[in-house]
């Protein structure tokens, strides 16, 4: 059985903070609270405050799953190369927990009487998501081939050279795209912010996949 590290303790505290926050304000919540937001950032569906408990449980569960996956990936990866990325995976795991904890806390804040325009200039979810993308991009170049983390296409998994080239490009795309999301969603109005967010996210997700195919096809004779 592995020892509990300081990182494990920090992750547990971060995951519990939104739970404590919700418990402290739950009694003061209205019986009906915003549960979904449209492209304009305004709430377009309301539900019982009990639904918020389910959202909280889901977000916390996602955080736990992501953290444990990154923590134990070096042990379960069939390629056994993920152990060379253990430090990077640990950093990604903790960064993911930090991001989810902040989003969780903001959701609770927004339904407890705070600002509910999730795409407005004053809120931080979309800019923070952009910074999170940039954080992931900065770590991409250090991730070794594996079946769980990174740009996993048939071509990157087939060729280590394709993996390296793809992740160099993906890292730059995600850093640049993430910073662009952060800047634009702070400056643009709500609807334009959402459009910019989804457009940039689609681009930085698709470009590395297309590149991995093209790189593999171009160099497959050299890679064989």
UniProtKB/TrEMBL annotation:
Pfam families for the chain: DUF1648 (PF07853), SdpI (PF13630)
Transmembrane feature ranges: 54-72, 92-112, 124-143, 169-188, 194-216
Organism domain of life: Bacteria
Keyword Transmembrane helix on entry: yes
A GO BP annotation: response to toxic substance
Keyword line: Membrane, Transmembrane, Transmembrane helix
InterPro entries: DUF1648 (IPR012867), SdpI (IPR026272), SdpI/YhfL (IPR025962)
Annotated ranges, domain DUF1648: 13-59
Protein name: Uncharacterized membrane protein
Provenance organism: Sediminibacterium ginsengisoli
Lineage per the UniProt record: Bacteria, Pseudomonadati, Bacteroidota, Chitinophagia, Chitinophagales
């Amino acid at each position: 059985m592995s020892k509990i590290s300081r990182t494990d303790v920090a992750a547990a505290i971060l995951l519990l903070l939104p739970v404590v926050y919700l418990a402290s304000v739950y009694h003061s919540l209205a019986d009906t609270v915003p549960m979904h937001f449209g492209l304009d950032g305004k709430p377009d569906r309301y539900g019982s405050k009990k639904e918020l408990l389910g959202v909280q449980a889901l977000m916390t569960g996602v955080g736990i799953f992501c953290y444990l996956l990154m923590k134990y990936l070096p042990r379960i990866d069939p390629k056994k190369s993920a152990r060379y990325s253990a430090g990077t995976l640990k950093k990604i795991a903790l960064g993911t927990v930090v991001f989810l904890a902040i989003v969780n806390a903001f959701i609770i804040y927004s339904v407890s009487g705070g600002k509910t325009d999730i795409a407005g200039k004053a809120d931080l979810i979309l800019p923070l998501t952009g910074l999170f993308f940039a954080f992931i991009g900065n770590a991409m170049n250090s991730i070794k081939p594996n079946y769980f983390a990174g740009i996993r296409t048939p071509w990157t998994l087939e060729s280590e050279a394709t993996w390296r080239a793809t992740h160099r490009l993906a890292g730059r795309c995600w850093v640049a795209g993430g910073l662009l999301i952060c800047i634009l969603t702070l400056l643009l109005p709500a609807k334009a912010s959402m459009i910019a967010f989804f457009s940039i996210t689609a681009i930085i997700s698709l470009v590395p996949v297309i590149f991995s195919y093209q790189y593999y096809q171009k160099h497959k004779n050299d890679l064989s």
